[in-house]
Amino acid sequence: xxxxxxxxxxxxxxxxxxxxxxxxxxxxxxxxxxxxxxxxxxxxxxxxxxxxxxxxxxxxxxxxxxxxxxxxxxxxxxxxxxxxxxxxxxxxxxxxxxxxxxxxxxxxxxxxxxxxxxxxxxxxxxxxxxxxxxxxxxxxxxxxxxxxxxxxxxxxxxxxxxxxxxxxxxxxxxxxxxxxxxxxxxxxxxxxxxxxxxxxxxxxxxxxxxxxxxxxxxxxxxxxxxxxxxxxxxxx
Length: 236
Prior knowledge:
The chain has helices spanning about 1-20, 25-40, 70-75, 105-110, 180-185, 225-235; strands at about 85-90, 95-100, 115, 130-135, 155-160, 165-175, 190-200, 210-220. By secondary structure, the protein is an alpha+beta fold. Mean pLDDT is about 85; it is low at about 15-20.
């Protein structure tokens, strides 16, 4: 009888472990969604563009943008309260509206779009290539760059910082080999361009989804209309 009970317990544990592994991405996304929503909640019904938090020390190591899993979430969840939101990335046609964080680190890549280059070298709206990375997360939730593969030619991309809103129009969306860093890092000496990238699927060393666009409009944040404010900051 004891052996039978032990066998049932072992089988149950095995099934739970198997299910947890199979649905770990959805589990991670569920908790991330709740955590990010809590951080961004405001009383007036709008999302935060910046916070007063000190912020985590950023890194600038693109290799950190590999696959995320529930272990990454568990290891970094204590850092979320220290993250400083420094702007927003909005792509209306794919219902993407996520925070921008200064520099790459494992927490930033879970939270939103991470700036790959220091702001001393490249800022949004400037001539050159403004590069943002994020993890591939769940398509069902507004987290990370999971919907990046749905972005199409001539879709609009909006980027905010503490002072301005920059509007870019998409030139192309490609899937490239993992080793193809040129597609991500290629810059311009005459145009202000933006590059967004993430993994095309879960796993290590997978091909990358890369989206590129160029700036077409620049506005002061204080001068935007009510419709523009709702587009950029209204909680859905």
